[in-house]
Amino acid sequence: MRILYFSRNWTTHDQRFLRAIVAGGHDAWLLRWESAGLPLREGELPAGVSEALWEEASLSNLKAVLDRVHPTLLHAGPVHSCGYLAALSGFHPFVLMSWGSDILWDAVRDQAARERTRVALAAADWLVCDCREVSHRAAEIAEYPQERIVTFPWGIDLDRFEKADSSLPIRERSGWERAPIVLSTRSWESIYGVDVAIDAFALVSQGVPSARLVLAGDGGQAAAVKAQLLSKGLMGRTYLPGRISQSELPGYYQDAAVYLSCSYSDGSSVSLMEALAAGLPVVATDIPGNREWIEHDVNGWLCPSGDVCAFSRALADALNLTSSQRSEMAERNRALAHSRADWRIHAGALEQTYRTALDTYGHHN
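RESULT FIELD:
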C-alpha cells in the first residue's frame, strides 16, 4: 500500500505515525501544509519515507501531488486545513485524522473553520480521533456516522517514561537541589493557559516557598510569559529550558513532583499520558478529554478552566502528599498508562483502519 500522509508540518507525532506506517510494510509519502517548498534536512525523514514537495498549499497543487505520487490511500489532518483540502480533491479512500483542537477548539470558535470541518467530515471515508469528545463533536458538526469513527489515544513509548533517570541541570543551582518541581510542558500559546499556570504557581509558592517551576516549551506568547514571570518575581524560581528534546524529556518527568496543564482544550493529551507513565500526580483542566484519564482527588486533580485559585489549591494538595500517598498515586497512574496509553497497541488500530478503508474500495496492496 502506498500512503500519502498529509499533515500541517513535521512534529514528533508525525514522525511516530510515519514510522508506524513504514513498520506496517507500506510505502509512505509525507506532504506538509506549512514550509511548502522547503524540504526537510537530509536524515530527518525516517527510513522508508519520501517527501512530496509543492510550492504552496492549494487544491491544484494537491491534485498534482496525487497524480505524481499515485497513492493507494490518502491520510490527512488537521481536519479544517489538510483535511479540508483533501476533501476538495475528491480522492478516495480518504482517512481523516483529527488533532483534537481542530474540532474541539477551532471549529467551535471560528465559523469558517467550522464550515471547512463540516466539508472535510462529509467527504471522509473514515475518521480517526484520540478521544470520545472529539468523536461526539464530529457527530454534532456533520452528523458523521459513529460506525466509521476509530477512537484511540495516540499513546507513548511506556518504557522510556517509566525507566528514565533525572536529567535536570538546574538541580546544580542553589535552592534547586531538593526543591519540589512543578512541571509544565505545554506550548506557549493562548489555548494552553500558560498564564494561568504561572499565576497558580505564584500563589502556591507563597505557602510552599521551596517549590520551583519548570516551564518548558516556547511559542507566540514568549514575550508575555517572560514579562509575567518578571512581574510576579518568579524568574529565580523558574527554569525555562525551551523545547526539550525527546531524549531528555523522560528525565524531566522523573525529576518533577507534579505535572501541571491549564489548557483550555485537549483530546487525549500526549504530555498527560507521559506524566501518568512516569507516575506523577497531575493537575489539569476539568474538560472532557482529561476526564477520560483523571479522577479528581484519586489519581490527580481537575480544575475549572482559567480558575487560578483552584489550580493553586490543587498544586498545594499535590505538593503536600505524604510519601505513601505519592507512591499509591504513582502506582495507580503507571497502571493506567499501561492499560490505555501503549503506542504499540494503538499503532495497530491505525493499520487496521487503513485496511478497512481499502477493503471498502476493493483495493488490495
